Every structure is written in C-alpha cells, then in structure tokens.
Amino acid sequence: MLWKVLLLLGLSSAWAQKLCSPGASDGYKVRLSINSALGDQAYVWNENEMFLFRATLAFAMRTYSDGQEYDVANVVVCDETPRVSFWFVVTSPLDASLLVDKRRVEEAVRKSRSRINSAFLLTDDTLEFIGIPPTLEAPVAPDTPPWLIAFGVVMGGVGAGIVVLLVSSVVQKIRKKRDGEEETGGKTENEAASDAIYNMSFSDDEPVTQM
Amino acid sequence: RQRDQSPLKWGSKTQYLLTCVGFCVGLGNVWRFPYLCQSHGGGAFMIPFIILLVFEGVPLLYLEFAIGQRLRSGSVGVWSSIHPYMTGVGIASMTVSFFVGMYYNTILAWVMWYFLNSFQSPLPWSQCPLNDNLTDLVSECKRSSPVDYFWYRETLNTSTSIEESGGLQWWMVLCLAAAWSVLYLCCIRGIETTGKVVYITSTLPYVVLTIFLIRGLTLKGSVEGIKFLFTPDLNELLNPSTWLDAGAQVFYSFSLGVGGLISFSSYNPVHNNCEQDAIIIAIINGFTSIFAATVIYTIIGFRATKQFDDCLNEYVNILMLLNAFDLVEGTVTEINYDEMLQNLNSTISGSEVIQGLDLSTCNLRTFLSDGVEGTGLAFIVFTEAITKMPISPLWSVLFFVMLFCLGLSTMFGAIEGVVVAIQDFKIFPTWPKEVISGIVCLSSFLIALIFSLGSGNYWLALFDSYAGSIPLLIIAFCEMVGVAYVYGIERFNKDIEFMIGHKPNIFWQAMWRVISPLIVLVIFLIYFVNEVSSTLTYITWNPSSENFPVLEILPYPNWVYIIILLLAGLPSLAIPGFALYKVLQKCCCKKTIKKLELNTVSANVNMYDTK
User: Fold this and answer.
1) Which of residues 131-150 of A touch B (CB under 8 A)?
2) Complex-level ipTM beyond the 0.90 threshold
C-alpha cells in the first residue's frame, strides 16, 4: 500500500516537473536581484522564500483570475539557478495535468504586482517577470499644455504692441494733416511713411554721427 | 532711382553699430563656426580664418558700407546709380533676401517652440513619453533618445522623405505666426523701430554667452571640451577644404550681398568714418565667433564627460552579464569586471552569448565629436546638455532667448533689404512703410508655411544649401567688379576721400581690384563644380530604416532639381537678365535710358554743407 502511495506521489511530482520546463509555452521566468535591492538587509533565498512565492502567486490567481481555489501545489517551479532565477507554471485546480493559459497568468500577475513586490520587499526592477512588462506610472499631464499658455502670453504682448504702433502712426498722420492744412493750406506732402517722423527742416545735420 | 530728399537717419551711432553687429552676428557664429573650428584642426583653423577675414571679409564690408553711405540708397538704388545695366544686382540681392528671410525665420519659429516649452519642469525633452498601454516607453524614443524624439517627432513630426508632405503641423504654424508677428512688430517702421530693439537683441546674446561661460567652466569636463576645440592640428592647413570652409564661413558670416548693410549705411551722415566702422564690425564678428565657440564647447565637454562617466559605470554591463549567464549576484563587480568578461569570453558558447549582448564601449572622443553643427547642435546636443544641469528650465530659457535675439537681429537686415528695394522701385509709392512691411511679412509667412509641413525640415535644408550660397557669391563678385571696374576705382577713391578725408591706401586698392574678387571667384567655382558633379543627397529621419537612429541618406527626386535651379538660378540670372532687358529696351524702343545722375561730388555738394 505504502509503495503505491509513494509511487503515485513520485509520478505526480515527476509529471508536474514535466509540465514545468525552461521555455515552457505557458510558463514565465522570474528573476530576483535581492542583493542589489536590499544591500546589507538582504535575506537569503531558500525553500521558505520559494514557498512564499508560490503562495503569493496562488493568492494572485485566486483573486484576479477565474476565482477558482488555487493552492500552493498548483504553482510548479523548476530550473532554479543561484542567480536567483527560475521558471514557473500554474496548473488548474480541477485537473493537475492542465496548465492555466499564459494570458490569464499574466493578467493576474499584472494586477497584483505591487502585492507580490511588497511581499518580497522588492520593486518592479528587482523582481522581474520576464515577458510581463510592469505598468508604468502615467505622468501627470496638465489640461492645457504649458507651451500654449506661454504662447498666449507672447502673442498677446506682440499683438498689443502692433496695435499700439499702428494706431499711433495713424494718429500722427491725422494730426500732421490737420496741422499741414492749417499752416500752409493745401501743400501736399509726399506721404512716404518713412518720412512721417523726420522733417528735413528740423533735422540738425551733423557731419559725423555722435555716439 | 535715388531716394527722396527727406531721409531717414540713425538716432545715434550706437544704434547703427549695434544694428550692423546684430545683422552680422547670427546663428552661424554659434553653430557653424565651432564645428568648423573643431573639425579643421582646432586652434590651427584660426589661421585661415583670420587671413581670409582680412583679405576677403573686411574689404567687402568696407566696400558695401562705402557705396551705401555715398550713394545714399538701398541696394537697388545704389546699383542703378552705378550703372543702369547693373540694377540686376540689386534685384538679385532683394530676391535672395526674400528667400533667405523666409527660411531663416522658420528656424526662429523652431527656437520659439523650444522657448515656449522651456517653462516646465522637468523639460519635455528630458524623458521619453510612455506608449498607449503604459507598459513601456515609446519605441521610437527608446531606440534613439528623448532629445532626438522631441526634435524629430514632437517638434517637426518629420516625414520620411521630401516627397511625403505630411500635412501642416498646427503647432508649427502657430510658432511661425508668432515669429513673423514678433518680426513685424520690430520692423514695422523700419530703422525707427529696429534701432530701438537692437539695444536688447544685439547685447543680450553677449550677456547670455558670458553667463553660460561662467556656468560652463564650473561644470565637470568643460576644460576637456575646450582642449578638444582648440588643440591645433597644423596638418589641416594643407587640406584645401579647410581654406574653402574658412572662406565660405567668413563670407556668409558677414551677411554680404543681401543689401542690408548697404541700406543701413545709407542712413549715415555722409562724412561718417566707414573705414573705421568696417574694421570694428569685422573684429567684433571674429571675436564673437571665437567666444561663442568656447562657450559651446565648455557645455559640450560637460555633456561628453557625463556620457562617458555613465558609460563607464559598468552597472548595466554587469547586470547584463549576470542575467545572461545566471550567475550569483556579486560574482561580477566593477573590480573584476574585465577579468570575468575575459573568462566568459574564452569559451565558444560564452563568446557567442556575449556578442549578442551588445555591451557598450566607452570613448570620450566619440562623445566629443558627436553630431555638433546646425540645428543638431542647438536642438539635440545642447538641449541634452541642459537637461543634465541643475535648474534646467532657467538655462533653457536663457539659451533660446539668446538664439532668438541672434536670429532676429539678422532678420532685420533681411527685411530691410526687401522693403527698401520695394520702396526704391516705387511699386507702391503712396503706401506707408507699415503696410509694405506688413505685406512682406505676411507673404513670407504664407510661403514659409511649406516649412511647417511634415517634410518642412527637408525643404529648409534645401533652401539653406542652395538659396543663399551660390547667388550670394555671384552677387559679391559682381559688386566688387562693378565698383572697381564699371564705376571706376578712381572715382570710388575720390568719393571715399570726400567722405572720410583721405584716400584708401594701397592695401584696399589691391584687395578691391584683385585679391578679394579672386578669392570669391575661387570659392564660387569650387563650390559650383562640387555641387554640379555630385548627386545631391539629403539626410532623413526614418524610424523604420535599418540603421535607425542613424540618419538615412537619400538622393533628391528629379523634380527637386528644378526647384534648386529656380532657387539658385533666379537671383543669379537676374543680373544678366536685367542688363539684357535694358539693352533691348534701348535698341528696340530707341528710348534714351534716363541716365541717372551719378552722385559725384559736385552733384551732392548742395545736400550737406561741409563745415
């Protein structure tokens, strides 16, 4: 009897190992960089930590996947290296020979990423799921782009300046016409606008321009 | 075609000098000269530069000042005074002014865009934006760099070739409108308004350059940059292209041939010492080039050193090795990095893996000589350096304000060249100057909308290469030949003696008669032969090309050659064309050409009482 149980256990674990292999189509590679993240406070990676990982992943599958009762045994791990990296696959709770689809695993990991990270005191960079990119923080985008505001200020100033200058030259012309008519009564001036300000009779000619 | 006897004049000599300095000192001093200096043997480049400044730049400058001051007219008026058949030179100047003004102001629109975007922290070109599903950075940006991406995608939204127009980019249209509006505001009444603005636009760049120099010298690596810039390599002097580039740089740097300088000097009193002015302006221009080059290279040195240090920080390489070989953390450190790399490389499988890893190698010189002229310098290299400095928005605002001032003061001369020519031709005799300036600005803006297309960058490079280069050389050559041989060097000497009290000495005689025209002719011929004998190509930004982010070189399509012919040929052919027209007019219509009174001493003695 005992040997039957042992055989079954052995077979099932061997079976499970066959499901999980590096490069498995429904599996993911995980890589941890504990020393770089924690330095002196780094903990040693051992069986217990691996158990925590499998439990955390089972939690993620339970909460964010189809609601079935995933257990630690459903998360199968293989190809551990000293780096620390390993592959894992997730089996279905109903049938241990069926693997859960890659996309469902990815979705679950994505949604619970921060929980998984904090369980190990790591971050998106130091606990990597190769093939599952982390959701990056969206930058705060203001409603009006700041450059449009600056543009409005500049154009407002320039527009005001143009209007002021044009109005002042029109006013000067009107004033000059009025003065011209009063004084000389009909002397027509050649109104090339460049001459609007400078009047020959009043300019003081210097032989050399003074600085 | 002399201007009416109620002249405009300068408010003060300072205004005149500042306007001329502003006109000559432009973007080329900041982003062309440093590159030429560095690539043609550093400190050794000063030798051809200064020699050609003296033999080519100053004589031409003096010539333009003198004829403007004597004949008291813009370029069209001056050339028709010298000889009616030479009016074409004035027309050519006006056309070139118009074309150059169009594309030059577009560069100012780009500067304006960067300026407007500098009022935020962090600067938008300091990091890549995220893609749509927020999983990663935008691929185009990741493969190149945030500054490249901001320039090519978010500013230009450039298409992949000149044939794909890509449609108008609305934000560029707005910036173009802003740039032309600012220009109109400053030029609205000609030198009345520009004369006031130049107090700021001509002096501010020097203030900003000094601030940057002080800031730059306190940054790590700045001295490396300066050493790289000025280390002389005398072998470069044997290379003819060094002399060619020096000659071209001196010529274009003085903005000769566009008629702006002639026009500005025409507002001077007739006895102003134009010889002194020419020498002063030339010295200031040369000094500014060298000063700007120093400042630019302190910042480039800083940037290169930063990149080199980041590259040397082998953390990234270490991580890649650890991951690739699944080694325990800590087996590869900065100390034993080289050893471990060698060990791993010694097995066949190991070396294969390592080759696939693309580990970075670091060389300070490569970083220093990285893409450093023209728009690439200002909008990619320098902006990147700014993001690494503390309080980046401040430096960014200062830098782009400086660039804007440099370009704006050059634009004043271009607009002056066009507006005064229109007035001289009396096309719209009764219209006030405000309206004519407005028409010029508006029409230039509308045509310049072509530069706000997706392919606008390529159009601008086209204009830059062909609208300004060949016609200006031809105009300058005709100017010197016209004054020395058509007008007569003796008459010209007498005019100068009347103006400043002594005849120009033997040095000037030799320059005007022989040496300067020869230099200009040689530059023109070499340039012309180069262009005509090679297939013309341009560089494009194509994210789907193989070597991305390296720019792809494409040949121009055939229809572009027609445009090049128009751009370069139209102004050049205006010179003989107009002469021909006058000849035909004389022969066919048997009309006596109204020979305009040459402004000899006797004709003008009643204008100004010599005291």
Assistant:
1) 133-136, 138-139, 146-147, 149-150
2) no
